[in-house]
Amino acid sequence: MAVNKEARSKAFAQSLGGQPMTQSQYIAQQMHRKNPKEREQYAKDLAYNSLSFAPVSGEIISAKEAREHFGKGETGWGLLATAGAIPLVGGAVRPITKGAKRLFANPALKGNVYSGQSNYIDNWYAPDANTKTTLPERKLAETYIKRKGETPSTGKVERAAQKARGMGKWLLSAPLNMADALFNPKSRALYAETGINRRSQEKIKNILKQIEADPSQTSRLLDKGVAQGIYNVHVGEQAGRVGTMGKVMEELKSYSMVGSTYVPQTRANWIKGVKQIETTRNGKKIYTSDADLNTAYDLFENNFNLRDGAKLIIKQPTGKSGNHLKDLVFKNPTNGYGRQAAKKLKDKGVKINKNNWLEGLQRESKGGKNYTVIKQDADGGVWVRSGTKARPFVGDAIVEGGVAGFSKMYPNGNTLSFMYDQHDFLEKLPVIGKVLREALPNDVVAVSGGIHHNIFDNKWGKNIEFRRSGTTAKPQLKTDPERLNQEGVKQMLTNIAHATPSTAGVAEQAGIVGTRLGGMLVAREALTDDE
Fold first, then answer.
1. Where are the beta strands (DSSP E) in 11-161?
2. What residues are paired with 407 via a beta bridge?
3. 455 touches 338 (CB < 8 A)
4. Is there a domain that residue 362 lies in?
5. Strand order in the sheet with 476-477
6. For labelling alongside 453, which of 21, 194, 338, 485 has CA 20 to 30 A away?
7. pTM to 2 decimals?
8. How many domains, in total, are found in the chain?
């Protein structure tokens, strides 16, 4: 919302309780307003904070505060305070650590300082043929690989160099994102009123510009835009944000998730949620038995180490929020292993049945492959897990890390698949992950499925002999055509990109920031017009 200079000046002055003033004038005004006892405490706090920011004394104070935090079991704050005690480096860290707790006392601002990070690290989980690393980058990567006791092949060195470049780029932007969330009144007001982080908003704006520049990349770029928006919402939930959510963010949640969102993670909520994903065969709904749902839940629960208060979402299996239908039906590694097991039985002249199906799948799981056989039920279906820590199951969604896939596979190819994913990208980062695990106390975990499909009923399984009947016909997932409307998704992202806070909200946050920083008038720039 544009406002003229006179209105901006008035709003800014009102936010600080009068006309703009110097830092000395501001401090004098604050002292005058307090009683003698409050003045004494204010003076002590002011002196302490001044020493905290100064070289040498700031490092000593940070070291003392680090010991206090560790003594209370506050590992995250202890590590941040420790960073503030490092000579030279600590001077850049201390302003953020000193102001963070006070500046985010408002529950509506919880998560703002973290939700502006990119949810994607270039070249981290997948190589990019278009990225060419430099000789110094490759030399550093080669040294790192040797120190791990491994042979530095050309491909391994290039891969490590790409990952290092991507992480370095991500880390360089992180402090700026955090500072913007802490000290920019416009950013604070936008998040408090809508749940939109301004730096995430800027990333979505940039994605929309890339679409305009190269429309042929629209599909993948929309994936990235929606993923950044979902990440923004997830982090707020993880941090425990309490406040209003902008209409467009509610629209994003509805687009990306099924039914009620961020409900308590319980068996009842899990089963109720996955039942909303409907599949039909020959026009009739396919029902999943209670026994299979309970087994799938047990596998889900045992896959994670969730804390009390964990929140559950059911992800849409189609659309730009991550095409999990495609992942489970086409990219799931267990599907290929199942077809290999069936083909080997055929080559031996053996018909597939429940008695040899388990053994065939177990043979395929040997040799460190990225799937594991769990158990066989009395009906002949075999439960298997996709992916391992060394070789994760990575789908098409724009996420950092792999997902857990669990499937029940029958001798006739019919398969029931689920995808499980905990939103813990930040917490996996080295060192600061411990800090962020404390700052984001609410675990968020997602389920996509169950998806019914047949692993033999496609071009890869056309030569596999199995008992064909009406019960093995290709299943159809019930979908909403609107979810495949790219223009609609683009408009949703455009609405997020152009959301603005109210003038009153910016003025209020300017006052809070001004007060917390001892009268430093950092808000003036934030009250300028949008470009």
1. none
2. 384, 417
3. yes
4. yes
5. 284-285, 279-281, 476-477
6. 485
7. 0.73
8. 2
Greatest extent of the chain over all pairs of C-alpha atoms, in Å: 96
Between CA 295 and CA 292 the distance in angstroms is 5
Query: Is 281 buried (19+), middle (13-18) or exposed (0-12) by CB count in 10 A?
Result: middle
In the block, residue with structure tokens 């019930």: 478
- Domain hosting 372: range is 269-482
Residue 309 CB coordination number (10 Å): 11
Per-residue pLDDT reduced to its tens digit, 284-303: 888 999 999 999 999 999 98
Which tokens go with 259? 């039914």
Per the domain annotation, does 232 fall within a domain? Answer: no
Which element (helix H / strand E) includes 314? strand 311-315
Which of the two residues, 408 and 172, has the higher pLDDT score? Answer: 408
Please list the alpha-helical segments (H only) found in 111-153: 135-147
Alpha helices in 72-134 (DSSP H): 75-84, 90-103
Task: Give the tokens for residue 221.
Answer: 């770029």
| Residue 283 half-sphere exposure toward CB, CA atoms < 13 A | 0
pLDDT of 523: 33
Last residue of a domain, one of 74, 89, 111: 111
Residue 476 lies in a domain: yes
Please state, in angstroms and rounded to a whole number, the distance separating the CA atoms of residues 345 and 465. 10
Residues 364, 191 contacting (CB under 8 angstroms): no
Residue 505's pLDDT band (cuts 50, 70, 90): very high
Range scoring the smallest mean pLDDT among 214-228, 272-286, 471-485: 471-485
Question: Is 425's pLDDT higher than 60?
Answer: yes
Residue 26 sits at the vertex; the CA angle it makes with 23 and 27, to the nearest 5 degrees, is 90
Dist CA 273 CA 327 (whole Å): 20
Task: Report residue 304 as tokens.
Answer: 């994670």
Among 76, 92, 111, give the residue marking a domain's end: 111
Question: Which one-letter amino acid corresponds to residue 61?
Answer: I
